[in-house]
Amino acid sequence: MNWRTKTESKIELFSDWLFENAKITIVVIFVLVAGIASQLPSLKIDTTTEGFLHKSDPMRVQYDEFRDQFGRDEKLMIAVKTQNIFDLDFLEKLDRFHHALEDELPNIKGVDSLINARNTYGIEGELIVEPLIDNLPQNNEDLISLKETVTNNSLYKNSLYSEDFRMTTVTIDTETYSNNGASQDATNLEFDDSLEFDDSLEFDDDSIGGQRLYLTDAENDEIISQTQQIMQRFNDDNFEIYLSGSAAIAGIFKQALMNDSVIFISLMMIVIMIVLFVLFRRISGVILPLSCVSLTLIMTVSLMSIFSAPFTMATQIMPTFLLAVVTSASIHLLAVFYKDFAKTNDKKKSLRYAMGHSGLAIIMTSVTTAVGLWSFSFSGVAPVADLGVFASSGVMVGLVFTLVFLPALVSVTNFKVVKQKSSEDEHSLMDRALIGISVFATTRPKLIISVSTVLIICAAIIAAQLRFSHFPLQWLPEDNFARVATEAVDENLKGSLTLEVIIDTEKTNGLYNPELLRVIDDVSKNINSISTGNMFVGKVISYIDVIKETNRALNENRDEYYAIPDDSDLIAQEFLLFESSGNNDLASLVDANYSKARLTLKTPFIDSLEANTFIDNAQIYLDQKFGSLAKVTFTGIGTLMTVTFEEAIYSSAVSYILAFSLITILMVLLIGNLKIGLISMIPNLLPIVILSTIMVIFKMPLDMFTLLIGAIALGLAVDDTVHFMHNFRRYELQYNDVDKAVRLTLMGTGRAITLTSIVLALGFLVLTFSQMNNMFDFGVLTASAILVALLADFFLMPAIMKLIIKDRASL
């Protein structure tokens, strides 16, 4: 008696115990789930860029320090398009729009536009800093004067106005910190919409006093919602309003996530009920599995809430995934139970047989699926790591419910005896198809293997053309207002995203150094020399703009003095004069000690790979330019996007290797033969190779989400292999006949494998109803992988077994 036989015997004994203690088991499980589910309302949602990095990640820590010092770089950018921005009626409406935003929006520091832009000039040696439009123009002369003032200031070009004067911007600067305070109960705290908050029991060490929370998700949502309401009031054909910016896009992602999750779960429930009823033709065959999957889902999501793991774009796939996986496990158990119960009419005996027959295979498939998911838990991308931890935990929770709760429910349920079909009606269409497949696979093994080999080689060649890409904007539909707005701003105003650069002199008043200022000025003018492809810098904003404006104003407003003074004492004096003017723009550009400065690079929203190449080149360029004058580092939302995807690529490679290695070990242990165990993994690589080919043909990139498919597909594909090989080895050792073993395996577990694959495939196909293009691709590709895995297990696996198993006496 080998370990598998012993394990199956133990499972049968456990089944008898469950049958005798079914009611108390059900009560204990319900009490346990109810207790854990009480934490479900505390679940948070995180769709922001910084939320993709672990809280301890150096880039995340650096970004938090940046926010604490200079405020959020995630601003809401509103672009307004018209025939001519220098028009009396337009400026009057822009003024009303500007003040409506200022007066009605909560949790904002201010609103910046043409109406209140900084206008710096001098009168008889006195520095004046005031709003650009103190009083609205009343006639054409006023308009001409305003236009001249605006166009003479290079700071405003591609910032406040487009080159064709048809578009202007209104920027909403939100508060950095939440108004909710840090003293409220931790379970009621929201994740920041900067969505910084990863742990409801911790506060950001870098926030002021270690006590303040960043702007919450709910607060940011409120800003976006009220902004859209105000936009609706003012929008018309000659005042076209576009809402863009990283904060707006994060809000759109969150809304899509919430809407999609409801749709996914609802559709999956419907699919499950239909498939279960068609399969079992019993109400109990629908209710019992649904009870298991529902409790699994509640338990898993509640665990996320308990451990303060937010619901994210990555974990969004988890509910439908768990619904499909746990339903599939239930199908394998109930299919055997109902079939035996029809023969014996003995519930305890049939349950014992079903548990002994399928219990070990269900355990192994759950473990292999969990391992495929668990491999993500080491990812440097926080949502992917959460997916690895909680999806794998959910699979194991589902295993417990399948082998404990489901049998207990079976024990207390009264089943109607269904008469067996007569022998002449015994073989259904599916049975005949499975018999045909078994005959074909065992009589033409060389043909099947040859065709599969050619297919794998060709697919591998095509797959080599796969391209990496991370372009979150393209996850949105082409007609989505945030995507349309962002693309319009990129085209007309040379960029909607910003890369932040911190210049640290590491000494007090280091920013007064004229040499440093000249380097910044030179970098601002020439940084585009390292731009390539779609990447460019449309605007550079820094504190030298303040110095040059002030210097010109104090020198009779003469343009030749729009330059950097040579004397550090004069620079210090000009800083002081500007601060004394009452304008607070300097606070967002330099620190209080004048040791650090912020350099903002305005860029288009493009593929992160292109941006990453630019950042790498720019870092080298800046290090050379600044030398020993200052330490230069990139931060900000734009930078985090590129770092996140780079980390995702590395983490996915590690996950694939880890998943494949662990699953291979489990397969060898299950089969009990090293050679057969290793060879049985070959068909499980076929889905990954075929998927890569599909992606190349349909021009789908390897992005943050499609990178996940390989390990997930491997974990799911192995499930069918485990069920096939578990039953095949049993019959092959019993009858010493490969052909008969294949036929009995397909006739026995083949039906369940087919139906569970259909459930899994349909489970992922519901993702095609998503508003997000990346979810659509993920659903199609994963469903395709499951179906390819099914074909590989039905054709390629039997063919391989037919060729390698010859000397049966030695096995």
From TrEMBL:
Residue ranges annotated for the SSD domain, each copy included: 293-412, 648-803
- Which PROSITE patterns would you find in this protein's record? SSD (PS50156)
Q: Which InterPro entries match?
A: MMPL_dom, Mycobact_MmpL, SSD
Q: Does the keyword Lyase apply?
A: no
Write down the membrane topology.
Multi-pass membrane protein
User: What is one GO cellular-component annotation here?
Assistant: plasma membrane
The entry's localization annotation reads:
Cell membrane
The membrane-spanning stretches of this chain are 21-40, 262-280, 287-311, 317-338, 359-377, 389-412, 447-468, 648-671, 678-698, 704-722, 752-772, 778-805
* Keywords tagged on the record: Cell membrane, Membrane, Transmembrane, Transmembrane helix
Q: In its UniProt entry, what is this protein called?
A: Fis family transcriptional regulator
What taxonomic ancestry is recorded? Bacteria, Pseudomonadati, Pseudomonadota, Gammaproteobacteria, Candidatus Pseudothioglobaceae
